[in-house]
Amino acid sequence: MTIQEIDKEHQLATQSLDEAGINDAFGHISTLVDEYGRADMNDELVRLRMSYTFMLKYLEQGVMDPQRDEILSGIRQSLYTLNDQCYMGLLERVSPDVFYTRRRELGNTSLVSIVEEYRNALKELSLVQSSNAEQRDSHVILSRLHDAEALETKIFNRVWSSFPLSADDAGTLKLCINGDILPVHTRCLLIAALMLGLMKFYDESKLLILLESYSMSDEPQVQLRALTCAMLTMLAHRRRTSSSRAMHTRIAAMLDMPDFKHDVWSIQVQLARSRNTENVKHRVRDDLIPNIMKMRPDIIDKLKDKDTQIIDLSDIEANPEWQDWLDQTGITRKIEEFNAMQLEGSDVFIATFAHLKTFPFFKTLSNWFLPFYPAHSTVLENLGADKLSLAEVVQHAPYLCNSDKFSFCLSLGALPDSQRSLMSAQLEEQNAALNEARLNELPDNRKQRVSIVNSFIQDLYRFFKLFSRRREFIPVMDYEGLDMTDCLPLAQVTRDAHVLELLGALYFKNEFYDDAINCFTRLEGMDDVTDDHIYQKIGFAYQNAGKAERALTYYKRYELLHEDDAWNIRHIAACYRAIGKHDAALEYYRRAEALNPENVSLTLTIGHLLLELNRTNDALQQYFKADLLANAKHRAWRPIAWCSFLLNDYDRAIDYYDRIIHDDKPSPQDYLNLGHVLLCQGNSRQAIEAYRECLQKMGGDAHKFRAAFKDDAMELRLHGISTVDQALIPDAVCSAQQND
Predict the structure, then answer these.
(1) CA nearest neighbour of 334 among 284, 384, 387
(2) CA distance 198 to 511
(3) pTM, to two decimals
(4) Does pLDDT of 384 surpass 90?
């Protein structure tokens, strides 16, 4: 069989098992077993088929069996595993994927032996590091350090490429992760290795180790990484974990742990927030940074350090005039927006660091999951052993995830000493300010745990989005919604009213309306949720998702309880208008107007609706009212001018278009409309001059002008402009430009 044929049979078997089509699954798995040619797997398949056949016979005979569900679940889980084992065994022979490459390299190497070798390497490193200064040799230390790190990578590769996990390996892993025989950063790597293996093949024993590590470890880094990886596994394999009794039992036992629910919620919220990472990336890269780079050259020059040419924005405070200019241009607002995103946990630095993932360091798979620590060889080689203080500054840098800290050190290693010193000083100054702020606060265990979660999820996001061979793994961070509320083992935690409210607001803010609807509708059905505004929130989400009729259903429910809510009435009107029920929309807009008689925006909206209903005189009265209310805002001038034109009141129309041109900022459309009025008034020469102004405002785009002119053909015909004249006018307008 080819790789494509093996893939197809495996996928069909998995799909059949997902949909409880056990007989079909037997057929597909039988094909793989025959191709694999291992007698033990064939025997296992025969045993499972026999058990299933007997179960069907007992069912047909009407025999009551209270354990039938449990037996069926066991057969199904065994078939899943057998399907994966055959698939893996067949691909291991031929596939170039890194998973199978590592299996071929390490398949006969025991985990215990690698761990023992690694521990001996750590002892040797410790002896060299603890020797007195005269005997200490930095080259020897780095050599021993490289040896130890190579063995860390080997352990990682051995764990993640193991499937299924043997009982001996499981015991070794529990001892390594939950004990203190290995450094914390290595234990964190083992957690990531288990998760990465689960992103290739589901193995319940690995998932249970992750959950046990959360329960048993006394290291927050290990705990929270383990829970995050477990939750992502449940998301990636939700069909299999949802039906697992062992999983439900384990989660139930964790419910009484003091931090468990809050940790789940933190992970849930940060996963939801990670969905907006690409939008944040574009805003920083395409909006904030270009706007800062547009700063006046003279200011830029004054902000540059003479030696390094690096810009220090903190110097802006020295000159209020510069600050005023920044306020006027909107750059201050954008920087404040950036800071706000940073504070709420958004991944604001991915745009900066994405291109720094091409260093050879990131060719090694395990390095994507390595917690940053100053004694790593990459840090020492790029910053130098004498620059350990700089490494410690980087270690405590807020908002940078571990992966970006390594990227930062790698990039610093390529800089001249002067620039490196300046960047170090700036980073240290920022850290000092933040540390001083923290000293004024009480220690907050919850904030620390949230910070660990945020950093690790950002590390995971970078791996799943930027690693060169990322397509060889389940793209769990691409899952639409990253919705943990559907992972049944965790449902009683993830469907908490507080977190659903938080998630709904987060999804709505980031314009993921379907996900917001999912959260808010779950809230709607909860007995302890009594806030009637939930109907408005669901309606608002549906309305923004373009589902006006569904939105009306919920706005109407709220109206039954609060009939004079102006906001609700106005949104009902907008929904009626969106679905073409203009009379109903007008009725509700009038009700809203009665509650807010001086609302200019509402007055204008009613005018627009009346115009759509061809009630031009009534619309004009609304626009006059809006003009009185708006004072100098000029918001009603354009519709007054257009209505006057429609009513053949050309003098008033010209009067208002003249006001727009002299007292406002005229658009191409304003000159086009003025041209229409003048043309209908019989002033062809002036009309063509206005049209030429329109063309000029359009950048001389004749095609665009002709299209805009043609859009008003019906209106011009109703005002007596012949088809012939309409054909000639654009040529007369555009010919002058062509002659020029």
Answers:
(1) 284
(2) 31
(3) 0.84
(4) no
